[in-house]
């Protein structure tokens, strides 16, 4: 039986911005017996931190408006935390930036719930993955709108970044007792807590799981004092039961007369119209966001038990799709919006009815989309689309024409049902892989990310004006490199629409595709490096099945490529930023450092006997002198070499090293500032050293941890102390001395 250990509960502080709420109880006064207050007393960070603005870029899977407080709303994302809407500032406030690297699985939010009668209370169910390698989920409750949290560790796994992440909400406050909460899980049935989430147990009387497809309870909703639970593991047959209800909180039974069959295989969302006493349920034949080809919308008259099929458009043939989001207008009886999902033939839309589902209007048909604030949403085209992966929509209970809907890349909103624009300020969910801060030029930053490819940041406070790098347009960046002594020359790789590699001669503003590419690049574009003068390229590859492939070299901007037989297969090439003839590569299988002194034509082994088998290796070359190498390993710390990788010395102060980069030197320093995500003296954080790694200053704090930070970090070569940090779901963090 799933349960939780209340002794493991911990009160955690949220972000500084969230803590700015006034008139709320102090953290210490809220600490309950058996709970400990941590994080609130941490020393102030010597740095100020804020996001480099991109704007969204991730899947917004849920928005909940508070029914009693105008302008109060919460958003959840699949892997980038939760947010509270600040109506005065018109922006989202991140609530989970304190999630540590050890707890990175908890940055994904499976579900959220509010207390309609107590506006300061909010609840979150956290957990990104249910696989064996992922940690268990956690439950958070807050009495101050997310400024501080009380945590309960769960004994089950949750899957906010898996299929079905757009269903819900899977978390529900019982309207009959505000201390009682229900949590639908993917593999462990329905859980119930009677003490506001301090402890959890399997709900008695709920049917056992008929299968283990990984959806379980997909949606929980209350209709007056009756609770409904959608079951996502049905087989789509004419006799399958997918919707249960309870009127007493103890006994659950199938809802009589419920829809069945392929178009009603899986309940996605539900919304209750209290004025009409009617429950609307959306269905699909798969959990989504991909793979849906059938679906429907049905209405239940709760009092009489009568069901009505109110599907706006029935999927059929090439026009296959599912239904997803559902929301009722609190001010207008019979006014409802539902969303389509995975409708690629004519594009997803929001359908709206004002007569209880007898007729519907597609809001996309009269919509104009303004993405001037986030130009990347044009995806290299002349105009943006209405969006895809639309599995949620929400109507503001205080404004019938204020509707928001989430997509795979943003959150759109309208105030008049016609003009739509991203309502995304403050919400940054990018998963970032590469960062470059050029020493000259207009841009202080280039980035490469999952899902949105490469961006040229001519400003840090606005989404890049030119949007995504095109020619080609990449789905995900696989490599990004700049010629250290010729910063106008940049190369990038990824999965593209016009080849999988490109070069730029203007610092990354415009691009030209490689004229050819190795055959393996079509399947497995990997990291790339360019010599300090831009005269040679080395491109490495790993197949999708993890098989390592040979690397290739080009000396004509990708017009022709030659296999490098001596390069360690699958290694990440690194160019020496001073010597234009030198490349390096680290063989993680053998624990051997390789180097080339002929521009990548041949590679030879240097240091051997180094750590091997650690997937977290990162090799970096410092910019101030040739042969200054640094090797990060997440399980064995940091090593450096001042002779081009012939010998390495261990930095004993670091127990673990995740990624490392360099920036402008401090006045009087012999070498560049070193920026480091590492564990130092037992504390994992972001560090800076001005004396060649002899001493370290932690420049983040326990309230600014952002989950996983192991991909990239770089200092600004033009401004001492400025640093850019890649996160896996919280975008790019920019830090500067306080």
TrEMBL record:
Name of this protein: Endo-1,4-beta-glucanase
InterPro entries for this protein: BNR_rpt (IPR002860), TAT_signal (IPR006311), WD40/YVTN_repeat-like_dom_sf (IPR015943), Xyloglucanase_GH74 (IPR052025)
Signal peptide: none
One GO MF term: hydrolase activity, acting on glycosyl bonds
Domain of life (superkingdom): Bacteria
Keywords (A to Z) from UniProt: Carbohydrate metabolism, Glycosidase, Hydrolase, Polysaccharide degradation, Signal
GO biological process: polysaccharide catabolic process; xyloglucan metabolic process
Alphabetized PROSITE patterns for the sequence: TAT
Family note: Belongs to the glycosyl hydrolase 74 family.
Pfam families: BNR
């Amino acid at each position: 039986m799933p349960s939780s250990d209340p002794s493991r509960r911990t009160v955690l502080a949220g972000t500084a911005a969230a803590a700015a709420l006034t008139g709320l109880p102090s953290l210490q006064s809220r600490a309950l017996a058996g709970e400990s207050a941590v994080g609130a007393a941490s020393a102030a960070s010597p740095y100020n931190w804020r996001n480099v603005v991109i704007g969204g870029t991730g899947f917004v899977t849920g928005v909940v408006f508070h029914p009693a407080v105008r302008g109060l709303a919460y958003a959840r994302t699949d892997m980038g935390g939760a947010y509270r809407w600040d109506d005065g500032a018109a922006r989202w406030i991140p609530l989970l930036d304190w999630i540590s690297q050890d707890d990175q699985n908890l940055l994904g939010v499976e579900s959220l719930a509010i207390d309609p009668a107590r506006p300061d209370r909010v609840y979150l169910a956290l957990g990104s993955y249910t696989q064996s390698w992922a940690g268990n989920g956690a439950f958070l409750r807050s009495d101050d709108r997310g400024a501080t949290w009380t945590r309960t560790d769960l004994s089950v796994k949750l899957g906010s970044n898996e299929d079905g992440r757009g269903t819900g909400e899977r978390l529900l406050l019982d309207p009959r007792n505000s201390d009682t909460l229900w949590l639908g899980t993917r593999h462990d049935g329905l859980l119930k807590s009677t003490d506001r989430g301090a402890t959890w147990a399997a709900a008695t009387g709920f049917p056992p799981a008929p299968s283990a497809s990984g959806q379980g309870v997909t949606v929980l909703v209350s209709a007056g004092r009756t609770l409904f639970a959608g079951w996502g593991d049905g087989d789509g047959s004419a006799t399958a039961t997918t919707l249960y209800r309870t009127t007493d909180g103890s006994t659950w039974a199938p809802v009589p007369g419920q829809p069945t069959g392929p178009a009603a295989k899986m309940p996605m969302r539900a919304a209750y119209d209290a004025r009409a006493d009617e429950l609307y349920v959306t269905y699909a034949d798969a959990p989504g966001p991909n793979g849906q080809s059938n679906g429907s919308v049905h209405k239940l008259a709760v009092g009489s038990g009568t069901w009505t099929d109110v599907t706006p458009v029935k999927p059929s043939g090439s026009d296959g799709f599912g239904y997803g989001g559902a929301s009722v207008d609190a001010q207008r009886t019979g006014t409802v919006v539902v969303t389509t999902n995975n409708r690629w033939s004519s594009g997803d839309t929001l359908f709206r009815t004002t007569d209880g589902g007898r007729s519907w209007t597609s809001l996309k048909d009269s919509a104009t989309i303004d993405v001037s604030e986030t130009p990347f949403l044009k995806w290299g085209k002349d105009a943006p689309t209405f969006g895809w992966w639309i599995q949620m929509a929400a109507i503001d209970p205080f404004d019938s024409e204020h509707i928001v809907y989430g997509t795979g890349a943003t959150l759109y909103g309208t105030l008049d049902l016609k003009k739509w624009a991203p309502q995304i300020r403050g919400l940054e969910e990018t998963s970032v892989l590469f960062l470059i801060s050029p020493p000259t030029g207009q841009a202080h930053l280039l980035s490469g990310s999952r899902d949105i490819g490469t961006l040229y940041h001519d400003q840090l406070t606005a989404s890049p004006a030119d949007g995504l790098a095109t020619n080609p347009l990449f789905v995900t960046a696989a490599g990004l490199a700049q010629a250290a002594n010729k910063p106008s020359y940049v190369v990038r790789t990824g999965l593209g629409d016009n080849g999988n590699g490109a070069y730029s001669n203007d610092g990354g503003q415009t691009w030209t595709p490689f004229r050819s590419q190795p055959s393996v690049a079509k399947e497995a574009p990997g990291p790339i490096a360019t010599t300090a003068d831009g005269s040679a390229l080395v491109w490495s590859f790993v197949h999708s099945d993890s098989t390592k492939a040979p690397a290739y070299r080009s000396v004509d901007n990708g017009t022709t490529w030659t296999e490098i037989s001596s390069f360690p297969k699958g290694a990440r090439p690194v160019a020496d930023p001073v010597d234009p003839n030198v490349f390096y590569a680290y063989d993680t299988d053998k624990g051997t450092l390789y180097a080339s002194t002929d521009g990548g034509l041949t590679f030879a082994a240097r240091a051997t006997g180094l750590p091997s088998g650690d997937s977290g290796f990162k090799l970096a070359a410092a910019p101030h002198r040739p042969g200054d190498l640094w090797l990060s390993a997440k399980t064995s710390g940091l090593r450096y070499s001042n002779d081009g990788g012939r010998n390495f010395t261990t930095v004993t102060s670091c127990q673990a090293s995740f990624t490392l980069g360099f920036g402008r030197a401090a006045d009087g320093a012999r070498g560049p500032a070193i920026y480091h995500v590492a564990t130092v003296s037992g504390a994992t954080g972001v560090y800076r050293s001005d004396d060649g790694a002899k001493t370290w200053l932690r420049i983040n704090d326990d309230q600014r941890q952002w989950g996983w930070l192991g991909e990239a970090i770089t200092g600004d070569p033009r401004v001492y102390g400025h640093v850019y940090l890649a996160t896996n779901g919280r975008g790019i963090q920019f830090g500067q001395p306080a």
